[in-house]
Structure formats: structure tokens, C-alpha cells
Amino acid sequence: MGKEFTKEEVAVHNKEGDLWIIVDSRVYDLSEFSDLHPGGLAVLLSVAGKDATEEFYSLHRQSVIIRLGSKYEIGSIKGAEPKIPLQQPGDISEVPYAEPTAWQGWHSPYYNDSHFKFRSALRKFVFEEVYPTASANDESGTPASIELYKKMGGFGWLASRIGPGKHLKGFNLPGGVKPEEFDYFHEMIAHEELASMGINGYQDSLATGMIIGLPPVIHFGPKWMQEKVVGPVLRGEKRICLAISEATAGSDVANIKTTAIKSPCGKFYIVNGTKKWITNGTFCDFFSTAVRTGKGPGGISMLLIERGDGLETKKIKTSYSPSAGTSFITFDNVKVPVENLLHKENKGFQVIMYNFNHERWLIIAGCLRSTRLVVEECFKWANQREVFGKKLIEQPVIRNKLAHMIGEVEAVHNWLESITYQMNKMGYMEAAVKLAGPIALCKLRCTRVSHYVSDEACQIFGGRGITKTGMGTVVENFQRTYKFGAILGGSEEIMADLGVRQAMRTFPKGAKL
Ligand code: HEM
């Protein structure tokens, strides 16, 4: 226990060079810090020697006190107890609607003990290993390091992000979950927890390329390729991405132009062309790449291409994130051994389609988690921000905004859980037939909700919602990044169309009003 002071003892330290304040019963000596304080000296002098709890929390996020507080804390007020809980690594939020209902005390048919342990372990890991450097790395455009990949690999997180299956064998999974008990709800949690940081671009620097680039190897690669690639990638030693989109072919996959022509000796494909918006491409070792080996949609093949001669990656500057390693790739007479074919020649479309539902589903999980985080931020802010003499939450217009935001997020989350339950129950073929439409529509709904929540959150946060640092940092990041989910993995328009076309397949012939 630190030193104890009375309020009167603190009160005499009230000038430049001898400046103490009280925040939530803790006493801070800011004499040395006042010159360095980003908010300046004058504001500190206005509360010098006093209790500045209200002033502090109206201007700073709690992370400031967690990060810097211990450096300046000298003791506490005699007989007083802190009233504001400091968030600890792994804490589950008690703010209403800040967590899925099962984590807020509701009964759930979907989760068991292992899911709770799994989430707690991941959350602790994020806040201890990833979060401390995430913001600065995102700002400077520095992708997650290979060391962090290895840590995530050793923790079993990378393996947890591509579903249940044989690839989990031999891995220790977070929270002591056994590979045989792992299901799609665990995987959903694995995506959610990374998104819980609220730094969306940096979150994507952490293996988003892998979660879409590795499944083609797992499901369609020959044995030698699986041995060479799957283990090292899941342990974080090597990195892989999916290279499909081109400048003239995004959602329109059938239109890709990058060619792969067999060499006269028949041992190689010679690849020429470009790829655009390839997540993690700047730092990957392997590229699961769509190439043209024939005409039309039936003339596409998938190749595993290793970084080497003729393959170059350049960073693309997106508003989304400089740290996700989003890249423009050029293939200039790249020699790829024919053994690197995934599945069969001209059957690449099947490989691409195989993982589409899974990709869209995990986009929903991540996107919805960051949307929920934004709702939590708004709820907290509304409870601490005072305008026109009262807290925002006391304004009916703000309560109305929160009500709609909460309702939208809960609705999509319930739909997502219901789909995830079906994924656990159905085999691949049944899921492909029955879930493609609902997943597409759920993704559409999710990103529309993100759009709505982002807009309302910016209104609630005002200028802070468009300021990178400080109270609105999460809201600012979100309004700059949520759009990514509305485009990646099939745009909203494609999702809407696909969802209804799929429904038409089972529409009863002759059904009339
Ligand atoms: C333990 C005590 C304090 C520490 C460690 C601290 C630290 C900081 C830091 C790191 C920032 C930059 C925040 C960011 O951009 O994220 C900041 C900003 C600021 N601080 Fe403090 N501060 C303390 C106490 C106070 C108090 C008591 C007041 C007011 C009475 C105050 C007023 C301000 C203001 C006005 C800003 C600028 C806010 C803005 O740009 O919106 N600070 N402080």
C-alpha cells in the first residue's frame, strides 16, 4: 500500500514546479510532467492541489492513466476508495450491450465453458501483447512483426482463425481448448477478439491474408505443399496471402487477366500480370494466386507462388490502414513449378468459391465486433460528457440514437450466431447450398449497420469523432475503416443480389399471393 495523504496535505502543492492532483482518490505528483503535458500547464494549474477526477475523465481516455499513471502516482487519499474501475487485461465489459449477451449473464444454447475460457485468454493476450504497440504501428504504417506472428502462432491463435479441422492437430489452443472441442463459435471469438482493439487496419496486418490465403492450400494443395506451408504459417514463421483482385477485377473475379502459360519444357507456368489490394502482400512469403490458363470463368487456375524473381510487391496507400500491408503485386515472367497448382488446371473457380462463405462469415464477426465496440464507446461517452449543463445520456435524442444502434447490433449478432450454429451442424456441401445466401445477406446487413452506427457515433462524439487521438480515437478509426468490410469479400451490391438469387433457387414454383 502506497503513502496516504489528507486532502489538505495535497492542497498545498498547487503551483508550477510543485503540482499535485487527485484523480479518483489517487494522488499524482505532476511537478515534472506539467511541462510535457500535451494539454499544457494552464489547465493543470487550474486544478493544482485539487480533486480533478471530473476534469480528467472529461478529457482523457482511461488508457492515459493506465499507461502513465503509475509513473506519477505517489499515494492515495486517506480513507477514500477508488470508484472508477480501471480496465485490466482480459476484463469483460460490464457496460450494457458491450459484449454478446452470453457474456452479460444471459443463458445461451451456443456456448460452453471452453468458449468462455477461450475468449478470456485471447482478450488478455490482445491487451498484453498486441494492443500496446498497435496504435503507434498503425499510425506509422508498420505491419505486425514476425515476432508477434510467432507469438500468436505459439499461442494457437493463428490456427484458431481458419475453422475446425485437421490443421489443429498438435496445437495448444488459447484457454486450454482441445482441438477436438474446437468449433466455429471458437473461431468466431478468435476474430472478434482481435477486432475488440478498435484498430481495424492493424488488426488486418495480423494474418487476414492467412485466413483467406491458407485454406486453398489446406483443402486443395498436394501433400508436399501442405507439409511445406501449413505448419510454418500456423506457427507464424512464414506468411501467406490470397491474391485474386486486380485493377479491373474486384468482385468480378471471372474477369482476371493475370496469365499463366506453360513453359515449352512443361515444367513451369510463366506468370505475368498484376494484382491489387492484396492484404498483407507487402510482407508475405506465399501467394495463393488466381491466374488465367484458359478462356472465361472456366479458364481460371489457382497457383501457390513463392516470393522470388519477377514478383514484386508495393504498398498501396488506402484510407483504411497503412499497416495492413495492402499491396499492388507485379508478376514479371515469374517461373512457377507446375506442382504448385492448387486443385486442377482451369478449376480455380471452385477453389476460390470454396472459401467464400467462410471469408464472408468471418468478415461479419470482425466487423460486428468493432461496431459493438463503437456502441460501447458511445454509451460511455454519453455518460461522462456534459453539455448544456447535463450529461449527454440525459438528452432523449442521444438515448434514441443509442436505442437504434443497440437494436441493430444485437439483431445482426443473433443472426450471426444462428448461422454459426448451422455451420457447426452442417457438412460442407449442405452449408454451401443452404448458407451462401443467408451469409451474404447477413454481411450486407452487418456493413449497413456499421455505416449507420459510424454515422451516429460521429454525431455523438462531434469533433472528437474525426480526431485521431484522444476520446474519439475508436470512433475516428471506425469511420475511416468500416467501409472495408462493405467491399472486401464481395461488395454490398453483390451480397444483396446473391442472397436473393440463392433464395429464388428454393422459391416454390407457382407460389402466388
Ligand atoms: C495524471 C494526470 C494527467 C496525465 C497523465 C495527462 C496526460 C495527458 C495526455 C497523454 C494527453 C494527450 C491525450 C491524447 O491525445 O490522447 C492529455 C491531453 C490533455 N489533458 Fe491531460 N493529463 C493529466 C491530467 C490532466 C488534467 C487534470 C487536466 C485538466 C484539468 C488535463 C487536461 C488536458 C487537456 C485539455 C488535454 C487536451 C485534450 C484534447 O486534445 O482534447 N490533463 N493529457
Automatic annotation (TrEMBL):
Cofactor entry: FAD
A biological process from GO: fatty acid beta-oxidation using acyl-CoA dehydrogenase
GO cellular component annotations of the record: cytoplasm
SMART domains per UniProt: Cyt-b5 (SM01117)
InterPro entries assigned to the protein according to its UniProt record, in alphabetical order: Acyl-CoA_dehydrogenase (IPR050741), Acyl-CoA_Oxase/DH_mid-dom (IPR006091), Acyl-CoA_Oxase/DH_mid-dom_sf (IPR046373), AcylCo_DH-like_C (IPR036250), AcylCo_DH/oxidase_C (IPR009075), AcylCoA_DH/ox_N (IPR013786), AcylCoA_DH/ox_N_sf (IPR037069), AcylCoA_DH/oxidase_NM_dom_sf (IPR009100)
Keywords: FAD, Flavoprotein, Oxidoreductase
Molecular-function annotations in GO: acyl-CoA dehydrogenase activity; flavin adenine dinucleotide binding
Residues of the Cytochrome b5 heme-binding domain: 2-78
Superkingdom of the organism of origin: Eukaryota
Xref: PANTHER family: ACYL-COA DEHYDROGENASE FAMILY PROTEIN (AFU_ORTHOLOGUE AFUA_6G10880)-RELATED, MEDIUM-CHAIN SPECIFIC ACYL-COA DEHYDROGENASE, MITOCHONDRIAL-RELATED
Family assignment from sequence similarity: Belongs to the acyl-CoA dehydrogenase family.
Protein name: Acyl-CoA dehydrogenase/oxidase
Lineage start: Eukaryota, Fungi, Fungi incertae sedis, Chytridiomycota, Chytridiomycota incertae sedis
